[in-house]
Design a protein that fits this description.
Structural class of chain A: mainly alpha
Number of strands of chain A: 0
Mean pLDDT of chain A: 87
Low-confidence stretches of chain B: none
Order of helices and strands of chain A: HHHHHHHH
Strand content of chain A: under 5%
Shape of chain B: rod-shaped
Radius of gyration of chain B: 22 Å
Number of strands of chain B: 0
Radius of gyration of chain A: 20 Å
Helix content of chain B: 55-70%
Number of helices of chain B: 4
Structural class of chain B: mainly alpha
Low-confidence stretches of chain A: 100-107
Distance between the termini of chain A: 51 Å
Distance between the termini of chain B: 65 Å
Largest sheet of chain B: none
Largest interface: A-B, 56 and 43 residues
Mean pLDDT of chain B: 84
Order of helices and strands of chain B: HHHH
Oligomer: heterodimer
């Protein structure tokens, strides 16, 4: 066992003690949970909603739900999966209400279709391709914004938050296979948008 | 061109695009990417896209006023 897994275990144990106290209504423990998770939840909501005010709304909504329902939280499951599920659902609800995700992208063809006869441009090693280029940043930001919610949530949890396929599936309450399919489509969608931009630029 | 793209191999390349892109994948896929420039380019550009997105979405600090408002809404402002 390495040092980081020992410290993770110690961290998990400390966290489960805080969660147990919070379940019993200990205000200090609840405040500690807010300190532990507020930044992560704010970032998660910001990444899904791409707007600071909306992210703050979701942050508040998430913790209000936590305070209201923590007595029903099953301690055998991971607290982080539980709170992430609450925050992800709140973010997706907000997206739906605001109809930001108006572009549904359900039938995106996967790699195996329609690629064989196309000559592809390799921009992956282009040294000019950095985020210092504001235009690249704008294209990428718009592309993520255009991702339909079912793909955006998987992409954010898996590729940006770096969660495992298993945890992503648990949080979204979908199968692991479905996580892989949605992730693949999200990645291909974003890649194709960048590629369009580069062909126009050339 | 179809001999460069055996269906089963393409299916695996495709599946890999939904997996951890840094993970060592099966020999069949590696061999195919070595000999098929189009698949290699596709794979590399998907990988580069993910790297750029990660860079763009770097972790932001929780603004102090956002935290203050949160604690107030939760009525935990005297406990923190």
């Amino acid at each position: 066992m390495n040092n980081s897994s020992i410290s993770n275990r110690a961290g998990d144990k400390a966290e489960s003690i805080i969660v147990r106290k919070a379940r019993q209504g200990d205000q200090q423990a609840l405040a500690e949970l807010v300190t532990l998770y507020s930044e992560r939840i704010y970032n998660l909501a910001l990444r899904i909603l791409r707007n600071k005010e909306d992210a703050e709304d979701v942050l508040q909504e998430t913790f209000m739900t936590v305070l209201e329902k923590i007595s029903t939280f099953d301690e055998r499951s991971a607290f982080f999966t539980w709170i992430y599920r609450i925050a992800t659902n709140a973010s997706l609800m907000k997206l739906r209400r605001k109809k930001i995700a108006s572009t549904e992208y359900l039938d995106h063809p996967d790699f195996e279709q329609g690629r064989e006869n196309k000559i592809l441009q390799d921009w992956s090693r282009n040294p000019a391709l950095t985020l210092d280029d504001q235009e690249v940043k704008k294209v990428l930001d718009q592309a993520i914004n255009d991702l339909a919610e079912i793909y955006r949530a998987v992409f954010v949890l898996r590729d940006i938050e770096d969660l495992s396929i298993r945890d992503t599936a648990k949080i979204l309450d979908i199968s692991e296979e479905n996580v892989k399919i949605r992730l693949r489509r999200a990645r291909i969608f974003l890649r194709d948008r960048l590629s369009e931009y580069f062909s126009e630029r050339v | 061109m179809s001999h460069h793209h055996p269906e089963e191999v393409i299916k695996k390349v495709c599946e890999q695009l939904g997996e951890d892109l840094e993970a060592p994948f099966c020999k069949e896929v590696t061999d195919h990417l070595k000999e098929c420039p189009n698949c290699r380019i596709y794979f590399d550009t998907v990988k580069k896209t993910v790297v750029l997105c990660r860079e763009m979405e770097e972790q932001q600090h929780l603004p102090a006023e956002v935290r203050q408002r949160l604690m107030k809404v939760l009525r935990l402002d005297r406990k923190a």
